[in-house]
Request: fold
Amino acid sequence: MVTILLIGIFFLTLAWQLMKTICTYRQKHQQLILAEKQLQNYASQMGYFTVIEETNHNLLDFYHKLGHSIAALHIQLEVAQKLWQINPTQAEKSVSEAYQVSSALMYEVRQLVRTMGQDSLNKHANEEKRDFLARTKLEEERYVYF
Reply:
């Protein structure tokens, strides 16, 4: 009788230890899921900031080009103004060149605005797709047990 009681206590202790271990593993699993969500959130934010940084870099390059083009346009118009009375033919040529520079500049601005609009739409669609895939993967992994 004492042997059966000792065996019973042994199995109850073993079952209790097993339940404790299972609870600990479940808590760790939940912590891992939470950490994974946080990492995905951080990765998403990092991607967003990378896109912003790249856009800022592209805009800075464009502003430099824009500044140089405006300076060239200004010089051409100054030359035309000073030559207008001395050499009207040369002044007309300078105005023609200024017109070409301004046309090219307007074209570049339009292209940039169009590209930025398309990038914004593509970025939004890609973010939605990535978020959907991440949520689906999390839902699938949530039901995996140890």
